[in-house]
Amino acid sequence: MPAPSAPTAPGPEAGPTATGRLELRDVVKVFSNRGKDVHAVHGVSLDIAPGEFVTLLGPSGCGKTTTLRMIAGFEDATSGRVVLDGRNMVSLPPNKRPMSMVFQSYALFPHLSVRENIAYGLKLRRTGPEEIREQVEVALTSMNLNSLADRAPNELSGGQQQRVALARAMVTRPKVLLFDEPLSNLDAKLRVRMRLEIRRLQQRMGITSIYVTHDQAEAMTMSDRIVVMNAGRIEQVATPEEIYRRPASVFVADFIGRANFLAATARDVDGGRCSARVLGATIQAPCHEGVSSGSGATVIVRPESVRLSPSTGEGAGGAGGSELVGAHGRVLSSVFYGDHVEYEVETEAGTILCVESDPEPASVHAEGDDVMIGIEASRAWVLPEETADGE
Ligand SMILES: Nc1ncnc2c1ncn2[C@@H]1O[C@H](COP(=O)(O)OP(=O)(O)OP(=O)(O)O)[C@@H](O)[C@H]1O
Ligand SMILES: [Mg+2]
């Protein structure tokens, strides 16, 4: 059971002018488990700008929570530094770090009312009663909790409890807010609403935030930058758009969204572009800096960049720079979702996934149809072929 949200106990330099620049330098965590070492985090380095919203994203067990807990001070780093505004935090206990953490389990004090829960951190800081009253009112209003202020946590829904946890974390004006899967216990609709709410509040207050999730939709919609982690290491740090369009590895491309992976040989690498032969035709596409002429490559094509046309037709789309590629395929499955259709198409290069949004009813392909496959080459992305090094 995690400790309750760590109230801030800022030093004299904290306050409304606090900047909140966070640096992780070669942070390592090795757990010792019954004589066996578990390398949870393998030397993570990261620079987070004041007011930035950064998400740690990755599969279960990749070290997200451990990294967050080392930032908060709930876990000692085996080595490395956590530096906030030039000050090494590593030897400080959690309550001496100007940070607050919001947990999946809410971690509210069950015997305190909503109002008292929110006031708790301010009381610890010996804030005057008048100011506490004022700041708690502001927090209650900003989280839409006024009518619930006198209830106990067990008289609230999950979403309401999480709003209290958020108000409690923010009321002390920490330099850094830490979130560990705060929306996981909520239903799908509420999650969508809460992620907008958290983002809006965070932007309004300008607090540096680190958010842990394994939900890519959360990461994509909330973050200034996403840190994709895999087995204790950082795979890529970039904006959501870059992560999606220019993934640094097959792992990232596979973890974020869906993709077709086509083996090819890269040719004519020049100025961040190369040509590659896929699905029976040569395409020109943007490529990763690690791609070299004549070497093996993986062409990544998102399903929405694949176009299908009847194999008897004149060409695949043609609109939006779509390139006709020579391959024929047969529709294995065609699933209508209302706003889009998803196809699996059998080709010589394997099964290709295609998503067509807002389809014309007359042009929807049926299972068993023969089709031509087109790729929007400018939307494809070429990575160097990866040598298997295990996870
Ligand atoms: N106290 C501990 N003792 C030993 N090993 C631990 C301990 N805490 C975590 N680990 C191990 O460290 C690794 C990283 O765990 P961590 O909780 O950081 O993963 P996570 O990315 O947050 O995963 P999830 O998405 O499931 O929450 C895992 O292999 C885990 O088993
Ligand atoms: Mg975790």
Question: Care to give the gist of this entry?
Answer:
The chain is of the alpha+beta class.
Question: How is this structure best described in words?
Answer:
By secondary structure, the protein is α+β, with helices and mostly antiparallel strands. The chain has 2 domains: 22-98 and 174-250, 3-Layer(aba) Sandwich (Rossmann fold); 258-388, Beta Barrel (OB fold (Dihydrolipoamide Acetyltransferase, E2P)), CATH 2.40.50.100. It has helices spanning 64-72, 114-124, 129-142, 158-170, 188-205, 216-222, 240-245, 250-255, and strands at residues 22-33, 36-48, 53-57, 79-84, 87-88, 99-103, 176-180, 208-213, 225-230, 233-238, 260-270, 273-278, 281-286, 296-301, 306-310, 323-336, 340-347, 350-357, 370-375, 381-384. Strands 6-7-8-3-9-10 form a 6-stranded mixed beta sheet, sandwiched between helices. Helix 2 (114-124) crosses helix 3 (129-142) and helix 3 packs across helix 4 (158-170). The radius of gyration is 25 Å and the shape is globular. It starts with 21 loop residues before the first strand and ends in a 7-residue tail after the last strand. Bound molecules: adenosine-5'-triphosphate (ATP) and magnesium ion. Adenosine-5'-triphosphate is lined by residues 31, 33, 38, 40, 58, 60-66, 214. One of its GO terms (cellular component) is ATP-binding cassette (ABC) transporter complex. One of its GO terms (molecular function) is ATP binding. Keywords: ATP-binding, Nucleotide-binding, Transport.
